[in-house]
Batch of 3 targets.
Target 1
Amino acid sequence: MSGMTIDLRRFSINTATLGYQAPLSDTIEAVARAGFGGISPWRREVENENAPGLARQIRAAGLQVSGYCRSTCFPGASKREWLANVEDNKMALRFAAELGTKCFVLVVGALPPGSRSLPDARQQVADGIAALLADAQALGVSLAIEPLHPMYAADRACVNTIEQALELCALLDPHATGRLGVAIDVYHTWWDPKVHDMMARTASEGRLLAFHVNDWLVPTADILMDRGLPGEGVIDLGALTNSALDAGYDGLFELEVFSSRIWRLSVSEILELSSRACLSITRPKEGRLNSAT
Amino acid sequence: MSGMTIDLRRFSINTATLGYQAPLSDTIEAVARAGFGGISPWRREVENENAPGLARQIRAAGLQVSGYCRSTCFPGASKREWLANVEDNKMALRFAAELGTKCFVLVVGALPPGSRSLPDARQQVADGIAALLADAQALGVSLAIEPLHPMYAADRACVNTIEQALELCALLDPHATGRLGVAIDVYHTWWDPKVHDMMARTASEGRLLAFHVNDWLVPTADILMDRGLPGEGVIDLGALTNSALDAGYDGLFELEVFSSRIWRLSVSEILELSSRACLSITRPKEGRLNSAT
């Protein structure tokens, strides 16, 4: 298939892809050397370290921080648990600000143990995000709600579609301050018949804060740890990245692959495979998607 | 929690729940003896047997046929494959008519090998259903599109929400003849923020043809074979069955549980557990759902 590739500098490496094998300071250098344009670290790599120093190192390496992963889940079995979760996220927001990240990724959480009420969990999530917004404003950090695949609705996130995330944004941030938006991950959203429309709507509302790429494998052996690199699975990444770019997305495409298979490789092997995988994404020429799209 | 249970006669046993351990003629008697009001057989149990005889036996046992499982997937790698799939489904429809089933369940299929185009698969599905409608009309069999969980979008069904199924119905059967509707399975739809609204809409459009119950386990060890019996997992079955009944659903609640764990038990053990599980579903009194719903 002929088409346009996307410059490697337009891709960012989510450090989860590398299996957290090395300290972040080493990972920063490896990612920059491999030619990527950004990095997205996890809290476990930052919170016990010298965050301002890491931020300086990332900038010196010429990398953007496409995201910072991730929120503590909001819902709790009690009001006290919920409050503790909110406080924990406020703490994380301060690190996010120090890192100079594009956004703090909200994996919002789901049913507390013993609960069967998604409506209650969703209310706790809305209240939790509302409780973070003032800090986000003051710190200049944007919050990116990440809708997770419906197979995680019980235990990871009860926000499961882009449409649902946008409704939360409209409710909590009606004036679109720029401090609340959406992180779209193709793994979680590729199946959605509305994915292209919702991506365009997210961008047009100024809320497309992050875009994660990876692939859906057939068969999927494990519900959590069996994602593929772009090209290994069935997601039409050319069409999806094309929609994002057509809609005016100007951020990075962040490679986030949880895979026990890939984690067996070394950091340099994973970065080499990642680079090839990212460059294999081929946008249809002149916005010409396949005829049935 | 206090509330109303649902009469066991209002439940039907999908024979997949029993692991196909016995010939259908034995299963019919066992299901009736256990006090259920219906049965939903699979094609493998019918197509090489005396279908009219089985139908008579089911009626004599006082059971309804809540569904007939299931369609051959529509999408093919070629037009010829698609045509063969349609023909296969036409054949199955004749058995469905002989059984006197409430509906023929359409598991519509997804990406043919080598394809990454959901739009193409979805078009093949729409064309396939359209190609069955005349036969369905002539035979007096209703077609029930079953939206499957998005985790099956690649390999089992590219119709993944009730809303999407209703759009197909409106497109293909705009006058709501009664011959095209939806099979709602809580396993596939419980996570959907719109599930209650869409269930009400399905019923009000006269398209709620089947309602499957089971449960979502946390954790889910296997993407296909790890469903739970009602009460074992996190789905709020009281709220969902309540919505269906409130919306005027007058069909059976069909227990469909694919579980390698449960299949290790004998048919009588499974029926005993099933009966208890169905009777454990407790509708909130007076339609009083939990306050956040």
Target 2
Amino acid sequence: MASITVQTSPSLALIKYWGKETQGINIPATGSLAVGLHDLRTKTTVTANPAASCDRVSVGGTEQPLHHFSTVIDALRERARASGRSDADTPLSIESGNSFPTAAGIASSSSGFAALTIALDAWWALDLPVAELSRIARTGSGSAARSVFGGFTRFRAGSESAEPVYDAEWWPELRVLVAITDTGPKTVGSRDGMERTRTSSPYYDAWVADARVLIEKAEHALADRSIERLGPLMRESYLRMVGSSIAASPPVLYWLPASVAVIRACDDLRGEGFVAWETMDAGPQVKILTTARDAETVKERIASVAGVQTILVSSVGGSPVVTRKDRDNGDSEA
Amino acid sequence: MASITVQTSPSLALIKYWGKETQGINIPATGSLAVGLHDLRTKTTVTANPAASCDRVSVGGTEQPLHHFSTVIDALRERARASGRSDADTPLSIESGNSFPTAAGIASSSSGFAALTIALDAWWALDLPVAELSRIARTGSGSAARSVFGGFTRFRAGSESAEPVYDAEWWPELRVLVAITDTGPKTVGSRDGMERTRTSSPYYDAWVADARVLIEKAEHALADRSIERLGPLMRESYLRMVGSSIAASPPVLYWLPASVAVIRACDDLRGEGFVAWETMDAGPQVKILTTARDAETVKERIASVAGVQTILVSSVGGSPVVTRKDRDNGDSEA
């Protein structure tokens, strides 16, 4: 094999994962329900780099500290060795890039670690079950456990891997807008934000307990494709996540003025009968769940909000695509 | 007596009252620690209006529904009757106004109900103990229980009245800036916001439990006049109040984009060594605790924040002032 290229999409949680179990790596304390953002792609290419003394990983052309990726690379290399692959210890060159602005603050770690996991599985022809890929991707980033699937996914509290719920065709009318705000001052990363919330927020236990109720209701709403029920549950989920974080000591606040402006604009849009249910993660960007019917109107209105720089629009889906390039023939997709 | 005029100041909670006991009227579920805003004044004048068929209350020249004031007026009139005042049932004209913009969203109900209570006590020469005035003012608005005192006050959880802690001279260097933002869409009043939080926020119990810890620490910080300790506790208090509210169903969110801009500007100012500890209540305005030394710099910087319309500056204090005007001689202050 000359190269393996894998494309994946970021996983957007409609019901939020926030907080880890103290045992294990990235075991979620709260269950999440998510969609893949089909039109936002991470592309990761693996090639052999036998002359190098160790693996090289670059993202968007910038070389990365290798230890960020070691749980995933080590786990898969270990299996390559166990299965007798003679190239298991050949150093690799791993180049990754995103189709969306890298400064977007979108969870590119979900698609990034998923792509890495799938690419190495293909590179060493391990053919691991996708649940196992999810488990391995999780050790790089919790949400990556969901990105190895496309469509609608669930990641249960306390689980080692995520699971598919429906494919993209379940609800093809859905659209997700990502409103990219001005970048703010450097804030706390999601890993540290979660940890500070867990250890110092008086609301953490209630957040975890309540999340169990929310996700169950949201699963029913998704089963019924009811945006009228799913939307308010999405809002409650992210606002309770925010509520638990700003209650930490010191407080963790990801919002910028433009974040609030977008939240209020969504409220106005809903008041006018449009579908516009916002959610947020560990950053100032706002993601909006809408429909094919309303996407253009919502996009126009949100684009006019002060502090919004760019809006990305995506349908739901985002199943991984693997492309193998052999030395002697062209591409093949699987 | 021809008229009684009482001036009071709004009470700003540094540690927040948010949530009521289910028994009684406005019995706070969380203790609060507050300062009077000396340079913001509510002035309320009581005169006899014997030709009228009932009392008349106006605020800023606009006549108000009488039932808003009935708990306070009825309680004091009852005592006037009990003490044999022949004018107990004479209808009154009660005119109130604020020295600060009425649309400011500052807790003018605290100073308003305190002024009303003190004015009627003086009008009927009841000479009730101030703790009793606090108890009566509370039935109009919880925070009014604090405004009948000046300086630093405390209102314990579960109490019927507030109590003075220190007078203004305890910490005269303190200043409070009130950053008045654009007025936003009409949101939920504090009474409804508290109630929705109590009945639907999964964080309410934790909020109430945690508030006990916070106020105790804050009392020590105030006793030591330590802004380095009081400031972070203030932030934790209001952000936990906000966290409990946005977790309600449906969420209660008072912030505007400018609110977040001011919060971030305070963060920047603190990073540069200035004293600027913000707090918020049931509205988009941001109040900032600073010192005489830093007030001018903080004011300039906050004035340049997009969406900030006006900034009011106040020292701490705000003891009530009663002015009696007799029919045949001039004013006398007591």
Target 3
Amino acid sequence: MMTTREIAHLVNGRLHGDADRTLSDVAPLDECGPQEIAYVASEKQLPALRKVQPGAVLAHGDLLPQLPDPAQTPVITVDDPQAAFIEVMLRFRPLPQRATIGVSPNATVSPTAKFGPDCNVHPGAYVGDRVVLGARCEVGPGAVIGDGVILADDVTIHANVVLYHDVHVGPRTTIHAAAVIGADGFGYRLVDGRFLHIPHTGTVVIEEDVEIGAGTTIDRAMIGKTVIGAGTKLDNQVMIAHNCVLGKHNVFASQVGLAGSVTTGDYVQCGGQVGVADHAQIGAGAALGGKAGVSGVVPGGQRYAGQPARPEKDAVKSYIAMTKLPEMRIQLKTLASQVEKLQSQIDQLTRFPESRAA
Amino acid sequence: MMTTREIAHLVNGRLHGDADRTLSDVAPLDECGPQEIAYVASEKQLPALRKVQPGAVLAHGDLLPQLPDPAQTPVITVDDPQAAFIEVMLRFRPLPQRATIGVSPNATVSPTAKFGPDCNVHPGAYVGDRVVLGARCEVGPGAVIGDGVILADDVTIHANVVLYHDVHVGPRTTIHAAAVIGADGFGYRLVDGRFLHIPHTGTVVIEEDVEIGAGTTIDRAMIGKTVIGAGTKLDNQVMIAHNCVLGKHNVFASQVGLAGSVTTGDYVQCGGQVGVADHAQIGAGAALGGKAGVSGVVPGGQRYAGQPARPEKDAVKSYIAMTKLPEMRIQLKTLASQVEKLQSQIDQLTRFPESRAA
Amino acid sequence: MMTTREIAHLVNGRLHGDADRTLSDVAPLDECGPQEIAYVASEKQLPALRKVQPGAVLAHGDLLPQLPDPAQTPVITVDDPQAAFIEVMLRFRPLPQRATIGVSPNATVSPTAKFGPDCNVHPGAYVGDRVVLGARCEVGPGAVIGDGVILADDVTIHANVVLYHDVHVGPRTTIHAAAVIGADGFGYRLVDGRFLHIPHTGTVVIEEDVEIGAGTTIDRAMIGKTVIGAGTKLDNQVMIAHNCVLGKHNVFASQVGLAGSVTTGDYVQCGGQVGVADHAQIGAGAALGGKAGVSGVVPGGQRYAGQPARPEKDAVKSYIAMTKLPEMRIQLKTLASQVEKLQSQIDQLTRFPESRAA
């Protein structure tokens, strides 16, 4: 339980209305009841707000005139309501404390593995030879850490993740369940009608502060390194092929796929299901819309859409024109018959001037 | 072994031809031999039927005149040949009986977990603190059931599935291997050039009679619930992002991806690789064709196709027009030069009337 | 360490320049230093070569005149530089020898399972009843081999793979981490408003020399077999639905999805994120470009692109025309107004001949 006064104090906000209203939780705006506090992110949510009776509302000060009467529903205004809301949420719902369970006797751990302080290895996990873990690493149930893997400090490996041998993971990186890092790249040579696998003796390097979604796969390089740059976030079911080198602070939504040897600059964003052909070079700050298909050199700093992708503005124009296509076909036919008629009229005029009205 | 008479009796069908033909199994139509019974779903399969010599055929009565002579190949006619065929198949190939193995000593089970009657927890599985399982639940080898998860009666969790903490699973629901339910939603705030993860304190609720395919991922909500409605079926490698709320009896084919906060009505269908943008609202009974890309408000009760998706009929028209595009470009050029010629002819006429044939 | 002389001898190549240069490793061209050897695959890489100072270079003899002076940088020329480079790489970086660990006491193995010689079953793996393993099989940590599965000789099952019951895997086949083979097909009957699951009593047969990527899913057939033909290579996160029958030596890139009952001939290639509708028949040697959407009968021996897919040549033409669409719309408007003007000029001429310049 917190009062509106306590919440306003917590988030360093300005309180409008009852300071002693008690609240027991946060809630999504459309489910918010009189015991709960909601937040209004923008004007767009005002209609949804009118349908519920929240105990209190967090919002930006600019929205105050459009909110319900604070005498009925207390309002706390702040400059960054999302940040404030997260702070309140974590007060009502503290994140679970990390227990230090140590290395479970039900895990399989090589005697040559080395552990920093306060690591947890959960039951059913597997830690191979010469693995090195930094401080406070978490290896979830059923996770498999291959021989020679190096985890820096504060790495979290969720349940059933598989890291193949010799993968490097930077500090404060989180890898969600069932992700697979370091499988062989998909490279073959066609010899006498058979595809021969090209051995992949490279590895994968994941830098610091990276987050990798559930079921995502990142393949190892043939000789060098597949690299995921610092601060990059990959959603679930993303595919990063061998020898890709991603810049820093990239954000890829779910089901994005990069073929081999793609490079990206910093702050590249991909919407869901984007596909990138092998050896594409995507410039810093490029933003690829959902389902875009990309190849070649993609200059940074602008938005792209479509398959094959083009600058968003052009893609939108072509799309609009495409919806007009059936109509254009009719116009074209009409024009053709008009022109034919004109031609015959002119032929008439040219050949038989007397036919003209006089 | 069953005779045609026994089969006809089993499916309550009408037997044409030899009642004493003995059969040992069902078979796909194109591989069916004299010891086996096939079923013919529709006229389209008649050419395939002519290439084989099945021991007997199950079909709808309407097809009888088009089938081979029942004196040679006995025919059993029924109103619903697919249902009848499944019945016969399950007689020849009974599904494996569920053994009650109890909680394997090779599983890791928290002392605070509670089990209904006749649950199986297979070797290598992990069951966390405060987990509650209903009656007859199955937890496959290597499956990880996070703290506080609740499974209702008759839930089947296949091998290597991961349920993060506090996920709820309704009765008679099946989750196939390597699916991951309840990982953190993919939500970030960009602060000082870095993406900060938004804590996700919500959960996932899977209602009754749901089926979830292998490798499918469903993320937990930020504060509320990600919901999979009763009777909904998700194929393999489907992605459902945080805060999505799916209606009842949805059917999503493989590799469909929903971004955050999407809602669907009942009986929504998605073909393979459909992508849905965040906050889209898909009406009841909408059917999205394979690879469609959807955003915004999508009225129910009709079919959509394309990227961006449009009513199927319009999308098909535009597609056909698009295949004519190169031809249209040529027509356009031809017309332009015709018009130019006409213009010069008219200019001639207007300026030099004597040039006309007289 | 190897000298250029030793390397030239190893790959049966021709040495140009210093025979006693010592090298310690291979390296990617753009990271290659004076201790390392690079290979130049084609003229396209010459600019990259100019930026680095490799210890030596492997290349095709035809490139020799364009390479740096061999007096500075020794060059070894061969007919197949990629093959030679792999040979050198494996000398510098020998693949890890397969240890024979036998059946780990931390694995769960049914007493009815049968093992050929020199099999490894790693800790945390599960081997069900009546499983049969050939010689030299590898079952990775956390892998689950369902009842009745048959593995031929030299099969490698990586960590956390799940094989459902009765799946067959041919010799020399490799299945990467977290792949799932043999889950139920996605088939339902709509009865009284509910989708009833169709039991799948068929299986999956994977032939010899197949490679299956991480997170790939292959569903079992309803009654017959889902088949992956010999020599076929599937990348990560590929989806093969029930009753598909793939030919030999198919190569599918990542995130390809095949719906039910698709058949392919030999040497079919799919780029990333290709989608194939149910019952499609793809002819031998067909090559589907990335993101293509395919249905129906697809003649072999040619390239396809687009959604819906068409012969690549036509798809490219339509794509180019599509980028011209906005321009075409303008041309169409211009033409229409020109035609209108022409018409009025002609009307003028026809009605008022005196208006002509005389």
